[in-house]
Design goal:
With 162 residues, the chain is of the alpha+beta class. Helix content is 17%, strand content 38%. The chain starts with a helix and ends with a strand.
Length: 162
């Protein structure tokens, strides 16, 4: 099962993604600590690539972001790891980005660093500079270039864990 299929099933059933992952065999840490799945990687161009197998983020990594997580209790938070040995994101190589799973363009993503999906399916880490109600947006890419996109989803980055 692919990550996007599991997320679609979770959305349809109105349950957290972690519950669907548990039923398909992804082990989950049983504790009061939040369980966040490392589900994607960000390459040096800022493109978000879904991992073949999502896995739980170690609690020692989650512990470093407790302040950001306390403000978002109960939300479906996902992690992506930056994997960039070259380019502008190289200084963040191995850092983990936390963000909410969403199906809309969130208003709080405008003017901030965000994970965005365009209607052509490309998912990127960028800064949403401006967005219209119709989904048209101007974003600043990791390369520094400004691009015009039609956004399908956008959610702000909640935390970056070095």
């Amino acid at each position: 099962m692919q990550l996007n299929e599991a997320n679609a099933i979770a959305q349809f059933l109105r349950v957290p993604s972690a519950e669907v992952f548990r039923h398909v065999g992804v082990s989950e840490v049983e504790s009061d600590e939040p369980c966040i799945l490392l589900a994607a990687a960000v390459n040096e161009d800022g493109q978000v690539e879904i991992l073949k197998e999502a896995r739980s983020l170690p609690q020692r990594v989650i512990a470093r972001s407790q302040v950001a997580l306390k403000m978002h209790v109960g939300l479906d938070i996902v992690a992506a790891q930056i994997r960039a040995s070259t380019g502008t994101l190289a200084m963040l190589d191995d850092a983990v980005i936390l963000f909410r799973r969403t199906g809309i363009v969130e208003e709080t993503a405008i003017g901030t660093l965000a994970i965005c999906r365009s209607y052509d399916g490309e998912q990127i880490l960028c800064r949403v500079e401006q967005a219209r109600k119709t989904g048209e947006a101007r974003v600043i890419l990791a390369s520094g270039k400004i691009s015009e996109l039609i956004l399908h989803t956008a959610t702000p980055v909640l935390a970056i864990i070095p």
